[in-house]
Amino acid sequence: MNPTNQQILIKTVARLLTPPRGILAIDESMPTCNKRFEALGIPTTEENRRAYRELLITAPGIEQYISGYILFDETIFQSATDGTSFTSILSAKGIEIGIKVDGGLADLPGHPGEKITKGLEGLQERLTKYKKLGATFAKWRGVYKIGENTPSEECMKENAMLFVKYAKLCQENDIVPIVEPEVLIDGDHKIEKCYQVTARNLEIVFDELKAANIFLPGLILKTSMVIPGKDSKLAVHGMEIAQETIKCLKEKVPDIIGGIVFLSGGQKNEYVTENLNKMHLLGPLPWPLSFSYGRAIQNQTLQSWAKNPNDIAHAQRLLLKAAEKNSLASIGEYEDEKYIQNRSKDVV
C-alpha cells in the first residue's frame, strides 16, 4: 500500500476517533430491526424502517457526540421525507458514512454450534458501490460463544482469516475496516473465562492481520468488554470489568492500531457507559478508545417513537442525551445522574 493510500486511511480514522465522539451503529439487518419493531408493536414495513432511521440521522446536534454512522445496505440508499439522501444529510453534518458489509452468520462445518461470517462473495463490487455513495469505513462481525469446548481454535482461526480478506479489500478501496470479533455475553461463565477467550481470540486475529500486512494504523477494532456471562449471577464491580478489559487489550492489541471502539453486546445501557468511563480513569492508553453502540444509544429513542411516532423531537432529545453520556464516558468525564443527585443531597 502506497503512502497516499495510508494517509487517506489515517485521516479517516482520526476523524472517527477524535475525542469526545464515537460511532453510532444503526446497521441492524432487516430481520433484527423487524424483531425489535414487533416487540414494541411497530408494523414491520420498509417505510417504518426508513422513517425511524430518518429520525436517527436528522437529529439536530448529534454531530457533537457522534463521528460516524454505520448503515445497513437498505439504509444507505434511502432518503429523508423531503427527498434528501441520508448520505447527503450525514456528510453535511460532518459525520462519516459507514456500512455493514458482512452477510450474517453460517454454520462452521464440523463444529456444531459455532459460526463463521458470510459476505466475501461480491464484496469488491459492493465496496465500489458504497464508496461512490460516500462510505469511508465499513464493518465486519464475527461471533464466538463461550461454552465448555467453544470457541474452538478452528473457529477463531477461520474468522480471523475472513477478517483479513475483508480488511484487505477495504483498504485497497481507501475504506477503513472495522473488525468486530464479538465474544457473546450468553452463558454462565465467569469473567476469568471471558478474559481467556477474548485474549486468545485477539491474539489470533492480530497474528493473521499482521501476517497479511494489513495496515494497522488504518484499521479499527470493535470489541466486546471482558465480562461474566449474563446467566452467571455473579456480581462483578464495574471497575473490575474496566481493569480486566484494559489489561486484555494492552496485552493483545498492538499500540499502532488506529483505535478501539466497544460494542454494547447486550449489557444494560448505563453499564456500558459506566464501564467505558472507568476505563478512561485507569491512566494513559496507547490507542484511542471510544464506543460504537447501537441499542445502548437507541433504546429509549425507539421506545419513545413506538409510543408516539409523531413526537419526533422528544425521541431525538433522548437520542442526544444518550449520545452525550457516552461522549463524556469516552473521555472519562461521565458521572451517573443518581450519583450526582445523591451528592447534591449530601451537600445540602
Automatic annotation (TrEMBL):
<keyword id="KW-0456">Lyase</keyword>
<dbReference type="Pfam" id="PF00274">
    <property type="entry name" value="Glycolytic"/>
</dbReference>
<dbReference type="GO" id="GO:0006096">
    <property type="term" value="P:glycolytic process"/>
</dbReference>
<dbReference type="InterPro" id="IPR000741">
    <property type="entry name" value="FBA_I"/>
</dbReference>
<dbReference type="GO" id="GO:0004332">
    <property type="term" value="F:fructose-bisphosphate aldolase activity"/>
</dbReference>
<comment type="pathway">
    <text>Carbohydrate degradation; glycolysis; D-glyceraldehyde 3-phosphate and glycerone phosphate from D-glucose: step 4/4.</text>
</comment>
<dbReference type="InterPro" id="IPR013785">
    <property type="entry name" value="Aldolase_TIM"/>
</dbReference>
<comment type="similarity">
    <text>Belongs to the class I fructose-bisphosphate aldolase family.</text>
</comment>
<protein>
    <recommendedName>
        <fullName>Probable fructose-bisphosphate aldolase class 1</fullName>
        <ecNumber>4.1.2.13</ecNumber>
    </recommendedName>
</protein>
<keyword id="KW-0324">Glycolysis</keyword>
